[in-house]
Amino acid sequence: MRHSTRGEVDPFIVMDVMEAARKAEAAGRHIIHMEVGQPSTGAPEGARKKLIEELDDPLGYTVGLGLPELRARIAQHYGEWYDVDLDPSRVVVTSGASGAFLLAFSALFDNGERVGLGTPCYPSYRQILKAVGLLPVDIPTTFAQRFQPLPGDVADHDLAGLIVASPANPTGTMLDQNSLTALSDACQAADAALVSDEIYHGIDYDTAPVSALQVTDEAYVVNSFSKYFSMTGWRVGWMIVPDDHVRRVERLAQNMFICAPHAAQRVALHAMDCTDELEQNKAVYAANRSLMIDGLRAAGLTRFAPPDGAFYIYVDVSEYTDDALKFAAEILDEAGVAVTPGLDFDATRGHHWLRFSYARGTDDIREGLDRIARFMKARQP
Question: What is the structure's pLDDT at 381?
Fold first, then answer.
């Protein structure tokens, strides 16, 4: 049967690693999961209890932009976290951050336009752009610039848009206010759209991340309940858009999704008030981060930038391999630890890199590091 070239996207390698790990577990092995950015905790208990109380509600369709009370609570969140006075009418509740990106790319760009990605980056940006007929433009970044794009990249690559992520996946690095302002100014000077991925906000360690809304109103800001709020499977996120883009995005959302899942929106609303539980989760990530930094270095994996936020460490393993895909498979097979090869994040240079996630419980992280240390020791001459 005929098919479209838009459907010819690359696989999401981390999902393939997850499947290989699942098969190993089905065969009776105990696998430590450092491959996927999924918290080991679920949605906050307080939020789930409140949803149970509400299940007599038929939970039918909501309006396309999301539950008004959730949109108002998200706007309140920007005042609490960033001292930004946000009109709730600019908030769009989406089917996960993935749904937000699909809406953003559809609303902002015409077929064939060039959208920049600072590599390494979250791989689905590239594949969603391809699937909607746009041209992803990889912008290689360096360790020295902490794997973030530079303002000059916008004009140098003739971009219609730029996607930035802070904290970033896979590196965990962040943009400070001056850097984010400079990127925003460069986009406005080039008439390019700025899309700011902020789904790891809340998971930071020494310095709070900056929202694009603190430097400009001329941006699309994407966030999600999956990471800090520990709601991956509920598939609910949000997006902030300029005033004059709301109706455009609303029309797209109505037709593409009708609405985000009603029950998930209710849990999300309640989760925003479960601060004590969520901060306990964050304390686990902080402890895991320290363990990972020390444990990887002790194992001989020393080439990485300590993450500012999120729950990943991106490690240069070029002194051990030229094939990160094979190296990751060996670690899974021999050590029972699932990790993600860098090819997911950087098709050109990723064969020299691995991403380690520390989103799981601390005992798992400690055991995984012990296994990795033994694996690496066995490879020493």
Answer: 64
